[in-house]
Each structure stands twice: as structure tokens, then as C-alpha cells.
Amino acid sequence: MKAYIRWEHGVKHERTRQLFGDDFEKLQGAKILLLGVGGVGSVALDCLYRTGITDITIVDFDTYDESNMNRQLWSELHVNEVKVEALKQHYPEITAISQKVDREWIATFDFEPYDIILDAIDDIHAKLALAQRCYKKLISATGSAKKLDPTQVRVDSVWRTQGDPFASKIRRELKRRKFDRNYRCVFSAETARTKEKGSFMGVTAAFGLALSAEAIKRLLKE
To answer: Residue 141 and residue 82: Cα distance in Å, rounded?
Structure first.
């Protein structure tokens, strides 16, 4: 039997309101674009939704397979199903777009309506295009695979990321394009434990939680 988030009317956000006070209304009015709903993005989505942010648009083109079960929320219930359509069943208020996030899509999509753009994709060309077009609203995740220690997950400027060859390549390519702006990134300073693309949910989930926490902090600040 498939499981879904069930809310008790009137108490679903009681603990959240106790933490945020009057700022909770600011969170509820936020509009977020989440690109990629795999091991990192699915956890970010769950965290934001449970915090009371429901105006979330998710974009992904992939389907679930059995190899996703070690790290992607709800994957065991939806093998061979389109991810965004499956997640819409669990988070009914969100907007789901089944689309590959690539340079062509980024060049034409209207990012203006969104307060924050969360990047949980792994295509470096798309990440670079996003940074160049949307850096003012962007919070980006770097590589979460090959790591074991969630306590080494950090959030900092893209120019101060460390411990990740993927993040290093992003910095190098941005410099090559003469991009000198700043935006926040989630990264792990831990040395990779394998050359293979193995993954541990303790780290991928920590990336997703860090993405959502950084988004919430920015919303409260603004």
C-alpha cells in the first residue's frame, strides 16, 4: 500500500509556528523552484513541504528504478514511474514539470516569478548555465556521492567550496567564462572514499536538508 503525507487539520504546523513565530506566514507565501528530485532534491522537497512551503515547482525528467532506493524518498513505491508525477501524489499542492533541465531549457524558462531557485541536478553544463542566468536567486548542490560523513557537509560561497573535484570543475569553468559573481553552494569537504559513484543517504539527505535550510534562512532574511 502506498503511503502519503496525511495532515491533521489545525495542528500540522504547530511546532513550526512555535519556532518561526510571525515569520511563518512569510514562509507560506514563498515561491520556490526545485530542479532535480533525486537523492538530494527529494529530501529538500520533503523538508520544505513539511515546513509549510507548498508553492514549489519541481522539474525533473527521470523515472524511478531500483538503484534509487538507497537514497531517494518514495522511490520504492514508484519503480518505473516518472519522478515528478509520483511526487505530486505525495505533495499534492506542488507543481510538477516533467522536463530535462539542460542549457536549452534554462535559456527559455521564466525564472522571474520564483523567490529562490534550488539546484539539485548533476549536469555541469546546466549548472553553469543556471549560475550565469539566475545566480541572485540560486542555491546549488555540488557532488554528494562517494562520501560517508554528513557532518562534513557545508554551505558557503561557490568560490570557497572544497574537497570536491566536481565543485572545483564548476569554479574553473565559471572563471573561464569570466563569471565573477557569487552564490551559495552546498558541498562536502570530505575526501571521496571510492572512485565509483556510490552514495549514502546520510550524506545525500544532509545535502537536501542543507539546501532547504539555506532557502528558509534566506526567505526569513528577506
So the answer is: 22
| Residue 188: C-alpha distances to residues 7, 25, 151, 158, 213 (Å) | 34, 32, 9, 12, 16
Could you tell me the three cell numbers for 171?
569554479
Torsion of CA 38, 39, 41, 44, to 10 degrees: 150
Q: pTM of the predicted model, to two decimals? A: 0.93
How far apart are the C-alpha atoms of 157 and 216, rounded to whole Å?
Answer: 17
Q: Which amino acid is at 79?
A: V
Per residue in 120-176, pLDDT (tens digit) is: 999 999 999 999 999 999 999 999 999 999 999 999 999 999 988 999 999 999 999
Is the CB of residue 191 less than 8 Å from the CB of residue 219?
A: no
Cα-Cα-Cα-Cα torsion 159, 162, 164, 168, nearest 10 degrees, comes to 30
Per-residue pLDDT band for 26 (boundaries 50, 70, 90) equals confident
Q: How far apart are CA 40 and CA 29, in angstroms?
A: 23
Tell me which amino acid residue 101 is. Answer: V
Half-sphere exposure of 89 (CA within 13 A, CB side): 13
Structural domains of the chain ordered from first start? 14-221 (3.40.50.720)
Beta bridge partners of 58: 34, 96
